[in-house]
Amino acid sequence: MASTSPPSTSSPAAMSSTTTTATTATAKPCIKCRSNPGTLDSRGQLVCHICFQKFISQKCIKQIGLLNKDVRSSSSQSLSAYHLSQKNSGPPQASSRRYLLGLSLGASSAALLELLNENVEFQLSKGRNAPFELEVVHVSCAAGAGADGGGGGGGLEDDGKGRTTTEREKVEEVVLKRLGGRYPRFEFRVVYLEEVVGLETVDWEGLGLEDFAGSSSTSTTTKAEKLQQLFDNLPSTTSRTDLLRLFTRHLLIAEARKSHCHALLLGSSTTALAELTLSETAKGRGFSLPWQINDGVLGVPSFSPSSSPSPPSSPADAGKKTKMEETGMLVYHPLRDALRKELVTFTKLAGQPTPIAELLPETDSFTTTAAVVSHKDLSIDEVMVRYFAEVEENYPSIVANVARTTGKLMRLFGGAGVADGDGDEEGGGKAVGEDGSEDNDEERLCGLCSMPLDVLGDERWKGELGEDSYRDALVVDKGAKRMKQRICYGCERSIRG
Amino acid sequence: MAPALCAICKTERANIKRPKNHARVCKGCFLTLFEEEVHHTIVSSNLFYPGERVAIGASGGKDSTVLASVLKTLNERYNYGLELVLLSIDEGIKGYRDDSLETVKRNAVQYDMPLKIVGYDELYGWTMDQVVETIGKKGNCTYCGVFRRQALDRGAKMLDIKHVVTGHNADDVAETILMNLLRGDMGRLARSTNIVTGDDSSDVKRSKPLKYAYEKEIVMYAYHKKLDYFSTECIYSPEAFRGTARALIKQLERIRPSAILDILRSGEDMARLVPGESASSCGCKGKSKPPAATAAEDDGGIGGCGSNGAASGNEMAAMEKQLRENEAAEELEVDVSKLSLAGRAAESETDGAVPLKTNKNSKPVTRQTLGNCKRCGYMSSQEVCQACMLLEGLNKNRAQIQI
Prior knowledge:
The structure holds 2 protein chains of 2 kinds.
Chain A: E1 40-42, E2 45-47, H1 49-76, H2 80-84, E3 98-102, H3 107-125, E4 133-140, H4 167-182, E5 187-192, H5 220-233, H6 237-258, E6 263-265, H7 270-282, H8 289-293, E7 296-303, H9 316-323, E8 324-332, H10 340-349, H11 363-366, H12 380-394, H13 396-406, H14 455-465, H15 470-476, H16 480-483, H17 489-496
Parallel strand pairs in A: 3-4, 3-6, 4-5, 6-8
Antiparallel strand pairs in A: 1-2, 7-8
Helix pairs in contact in A: 1-10, 3-10, 7-12, 7-13, 12-13
Chain B: E1 16-17, E2 24-25, H1 27-44, E3 53-57, H2 62-77, E4 83-90, H3 97-110, E5 115-119, H4 120-124, H5 128-135, H6 140-158, E6 163-165, H7 170-183, H8 186-192, E7 196-197, E8 205-207, H9 215-224, H10 240-255, H11 259-271, H12 295-298, H13 315-331, H14 336-350, E9 371-372, E10 379-380, H15 386-402
Parallel strand pairs in B: 3-4, 3-6, 4-5, 6-8
Antiparallel strand pairs in B: 1-2, 7-8, 9-10
Helix pairs in contact in B: 2-9, 7-8, 7-10, 7-11, 8-11, 13-14
């Protein structure tokens, strides 16, 4: 289980001021190995660098172990979720697992990259096969101009129409090259955000963006322009950040499917999951939290443009149903048990010959703790990042507890289950099993965030809030009927404000 | 440029921007809209029945004053047929409560409603000032909250009334949802979203007709209606989880005004996802099951204090400690340092720090069952109710001081 690359004990200077208290003067021994001097404060314990890295590594390996098992068992059951998405190509060899890592170039996903590499090398050193193949994809978000937080920022220069390389992209290129050199075993790729335009996992028509649909052939420049326009027209920074996050996930899932991966791995730390819990709650997406926070199969919808001959077009409802096909993708967060500050420290310690942190971009342009510009321009996500950065400092277990308890919420489809009265929702709430793509007759996914729609909740909310509710503003809008229940409450908010 | 006209009546000048959705309306339309929205809440949740006697928990603050005013208006406009009574609790906080009670007394005259005042001293033998003198400022809100919940019920019983309405607004509910997320208390989160807590099976039913009303709109309503209310906040301060949740809510509202409602929506939906909780948030779904906890005990998870209502001063620190102990225990490692740490934590918790509610965070939600307190006979899910537990501690302290 140990990290194979002996961590460099020679870089106390690189230690973060957060987790670490450089008490080099008083050389108390590490509480775990009792031999090396303890130099880091890890959850109230004085430990040495090596034991700290082992600690983080074990947290990751535990999750990877679960994932490996999950993939093995589902592939023996023909891996239905995965299988469905592979219409043209034969099924993959069950023996070789293939994962896709979403790399934001922040500390957490970089730490995951290093840990996955350690894991592979360790297995190889034992004379075993590599436990999995890994593809690393970075989604370059330069086009999400004006959005902040969550790996956003940057932005196209005024004159830079389309695919002119921004400063940021140049930096990314260099960094990815460095990482590719460091981890030659893995494949690295960049995907540009504008590639989301035309992806059929988004219900562009439902969003009133007909010209985004089926434009896979459109040139990159046009896509970038379209996307820029969409972002410019969004009502707030929160909306922009929100869509940026959703589009990034769409792209990662698309890439994972394209390259026949069994699972998408995200570097989200405990802290990130806690942030997500609160920010999604604040954005009205409480219903989908069990899907967002937990590991497991996420439904992946496919919306085909209605111009294509759709089968027996009956009244609206049936018509809609035939339009959405669904498959699934396994999504895992192997660092869910590590705090962000721990991962930051980890990147400053781990990696040979230099710590990975030194390969990453300058932090100020990439991480989210930049100086406040104006409170109005903050996004909800950003507010939560700042908030949890503080809480994490003094109350790390509280942060961990948020993610853990949220994970206990049940996954309900379509809010169904209470429909047959008596509030006995357990019966209706279907757990997503290994073959989560089945049994989705009841289930309809949001055209934007791909999370299950909460039909029941929508109705009840409307009843409670009455005529002045947000949807009624839409009725006046256009084609409200069609609009309705094609995207979730939270996405509605992001698009319309 | 001509002044913008009201989006509703299109005749008057729009001199109000609604905090909730930034709609520009005139004063008259705003007041009507506000009342109609409360009316909608009342009707859609079936809050009252004709002839029902209802006690309004009145503190003299903006929320309960607006609640009293709106209920009076709606009761007359829509013939609810309610008999409305003002019920006030005198916590015994000099410079705060004595003044606000004067306000309530004036309200009673203005709204032509009977008023009942119940004091902590007569109920418990302690005023809040005395409590603070004994235990200090930290954590006193726990006492106040627990005492008030029972006090309202007892007051209602004295009046033979089975329904108490409180002025909790959308901000309060949103705050409670975030707070319980932070505490990892999903059971309480689920309950806090209910508009009604307690039902026919429990002695006194609680409801919050202003559940969907923004605090800012309540202030506006009070201002434009020229209501007589008392605007000083409680002199004992909020802390930890609630304080932190409140700060978050304010920040979120600034960024996106709908955020408060969006949090309510999330909270209601999440309540349906909590294993073992009953699903309905609106208490209108016919034969509802007995609620998981009683109004008296839990108040739907909303802090009893309209303006502050916080718990222990070191609530976050205490919870952090507890969680770490749990983690340590889970790891099943005999680890000297952890043991000593746990020991220290236990020590410091007994030495005068506030008795926290037991921490059920890492366990699945437990359903509470209703019984009666062995000491005071009041309904409680424990053998001894929270108020009696707290009193026991206080009385011990008092005895010690006297010695």
